[in-house]
Structures are given as structure tokens and as C-alpha cells.
């Protein structure tokens, strides 16, 4: 890879890692459903300027419902209910494990021995993390958060059916699906008045976080990542996604003062090591996690 493109890959990973911090800050002002709705309403603006890709509406809705709506709503819920930012960034990255596992079920794609080893390592780390649940956040919040990597993995596999279409156009139109259902959910779950108050009394910090999540982390970063995947092999590009949980954990420590006990920290590191083994094998089959 050219040095400039290496810089772009690192920059995207840093953006996605910092997005976890932006999400947590935004949740001080918005409910999980409303925050996620605003994120994709902003990210959907480019669809006004690009044509709808040659993808059926049912497939478009299925991809967006899993890859975007399910993943980010569950992620926001976990963050809003006390799951630490750094831990969340690692848990969501475990979508690599679920993507490979679901590919076995859906397509009969048997993982390589190296990928199988990576799955075992990552699963061990997840079990260690599970052993720390219940102290500073509830098991329910952790269970909902686990929907995020599972939903992302399903979206990865559905995305394979949308081949030979411009990726920027596709992702712009995928962003069009979540806002209305999530706004409806916010109105029902939170009530019309609290939802309206959140929008009316939005602070500059809240606005900045939403613009960062919608325009930078989703629209721009996805476009840059897609360009890298167009110009280079997945084996060259995807490993840079391993920087995301490290950036997320480091940023959460600096901004929120998060600290991790020995067992949880060891589990987080083991999960990342397992994902590294999977992504650095000869047959990378997964997309990177974003926030």
C-alpha cells in the first residue's frame, strides 16, 4: 500500500474508535433510538445526490436492518445502560467471529484451521468477559449489546448479495432505512414530549457528536474504506480494523477515566488476539467493525 493510503486506513480506524466516545457523549442528551435515528438521518443526505443502486427494496431493507439498525441500536442501548465504552468497542469487533460461524451455517464455508484457532481464542476471551458481567453493568445490558455483533455478522452475509453496485451509493441508500422506524420507536418508548425536548434543547456538544457520527464516522469513513477495498485486497486493508478497539479503549480511558479489572482486560486482549488471527489468515471473509 502507498504510504498515503496507509495513512487513510489508520485515520479511518481512529475515526471509528473515537466514534464510540462520541456515541457515549451523545447518549447524555438522546435516547438510544433517537440518537441512532439522527445518526442515519444525517448519513442519508448523500442519497439525495446518488441513484438508488440496482438492489431490490426487500434486500436493501434486510441489509440495513441488520448491518445498521440492529447493530447500532443494540450498541447504543448497551452504552446507555452502563457497558463501558472500551469494552463495547471490543465486543462489537467480535462480529468477525460470528460472521465466519454464520457463513458455515448459511453457505457451508468451512473456516481454515487458522480461522478455527482464531474463533477458539476469541470465544475464550468472550467467556472471560462474561465472567465480569454484573458488577458495573447488568447482564441484560450485556445481552442486548451482544445483539450488535450478531446483527452485524448477519448484515455482512446479506451484503454479499448486493454485488457489482457502487458501494458509496449502496451505503447512502442503506442509511435511508433506519431513521423513520427508529424515530417511531423513540416516540413510543420515550414519549413525544421527551423526544421533542431532546431535539429542541440539543447542545453544541450533542450537535457536534451527531455530525461526527453521521457525516464523518458513517458517510466519509465508509466511503474512504470502500475506496481502499477497491484499490487493494481485503488482506491488505482489513487488518487495520484491529486498531479500532485499541483506539476506543484508549479514548474511553482518557475521556471517561475507564479502568478495567485484570480478568476483563485479559479477556478484551484475548478477543482482539483471536480476531487478529482470523483477519490475518489467508481467507479474510469479514468486514471490519465501525461505530
Can you tell me about this structure?
- By secondary structure, this protein is an all-alpha fold.
- The protein has one domain.
- It contains 14 helices and no strands.
- Helix 1 runs antiparallel to helix 11 and helix 5 crosses helix 7.
- It starts with a helix and ends in a 12-residue tail after the last helix.
- The model has no long low-confidence stretch (mean pLDDT 87).
H and E order = HHHHHHHHHHHHHH
Given the helix and strand composition, which structural class is it? mainly alpha
Gyration radius, rounded: 18 Å
Q: What best-fitting shape do the alpha-carbon axes yield?
A: globular
> Which parts are unreliable, with pLDDT below 50 for 5 consecutive residues or more?
none
Question: Largest sheet, if any?
Answer: none
Q: How many domains make up the coordinates?
A: 1
Total DSSP helices = 14
| Average predicted local confidence, pLDDT | 87
Number of strands: 0
In helices, the fraction of residues equals over 70%
Oligomeric state of shown chains: single chain
Keywords, please?
291 residues, mainly alpha, 14 helices, 73% helix, globular, transmembrane
What order do the helices and strands come in, and which of them pair?
Layout: H1 3-26, H2 32-43, H3 57-80, H4 85-93, H5 95-107, H6 113-130, H7 139-159, H8 167-174, H9 179-189, H10 192-200, H11 204-231, H12 234-237, H13 243-256, H14 262-279
Outline:
73% of the residues lie in helices and 0% in strands. It has 291 residues and is mainly α. The protein is globular.
Amino acid at each position: 500500500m502507498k504510504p498515503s493510503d496507509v495513512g487513510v486506513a489508520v485515520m479511518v480506524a481512529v475515526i471509528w474508535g473515537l466514534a464510540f466516545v462520541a456515541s457515549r457523549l451523545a447518549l447524555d442528551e438522546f435516547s438510544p433510538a433517537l440518537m441512532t435515528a439522527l445518526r442515519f438521518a444525517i448519513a442519508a443526505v448523500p442519497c439525495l445526490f446518488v441513484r438508488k443502486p440496482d438492489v431490490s427494496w426487500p434486500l436493501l431493507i434486510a441489509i440495513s436492518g441488520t448491518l445498521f439498525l440492529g447493530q447500532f441500536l443494540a450498541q447504543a442501548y448497551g452504552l446507555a445502560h452502563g457497558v463501558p465504552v472500551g469494552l463495547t468497542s471490543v465486543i462489537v469487533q467480535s462480529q468477525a467471529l460470528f460472521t465466519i460461524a454464520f457463513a458455515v451455517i448459511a453457505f457451508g464455508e468451512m473456516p481454515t484451521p487458522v480461522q478455527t484457532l482464531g474463533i477458539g481464542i476469541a470465544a475464550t476471551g468472550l467467556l472471560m468477559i462474561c465472567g465480569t458481567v454484573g458488577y458495573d453493568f447488568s447482564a441484560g445490558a450485556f445481552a442486548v449489546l451482544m445483539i450488535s455483533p450478531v446483527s452485524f455478522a448477519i448484515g455482512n452475509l446479506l451484503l454479499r448479495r448486493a454485488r457489482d453496485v457502487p458501494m458509496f451509493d449502496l451505503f447512502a441508500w442503506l442509511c435511508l432505512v433506519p431513521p423513520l422506524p427508529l424515530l417511531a420507536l423513540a416516540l413510543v418508548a420515550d414519549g413525544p414530549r421527551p423526544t421533542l425536548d431532546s431535539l429542541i434543547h440539543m447542545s453544541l456538544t450533542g450537535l457536534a457528536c451527531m455530525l461526527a457520527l453521521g457525516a464523518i464516522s458513517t458517510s466519509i469513513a465508509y466511503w474512504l474504506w470502500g475506496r481502499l477495498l477497491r484499490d487493494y485486497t481485503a488482506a491488505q486493508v482489513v487488518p487495520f480494523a484491529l486498531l479500532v478497539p485499541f483506539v476506543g479503549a484508549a479514548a474511553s480511558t482518557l475521556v471517561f477515566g475507564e479502568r478495567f479489572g485484570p480478568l476483563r482486560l485479559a479477556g478484551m486482549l484475548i478477543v482482539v488476539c483471536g480476531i487478529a488471527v482470523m483477519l490475518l489468515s489467508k481467507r479474510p471473509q469479514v468486514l471490519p467493525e465501525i461505530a
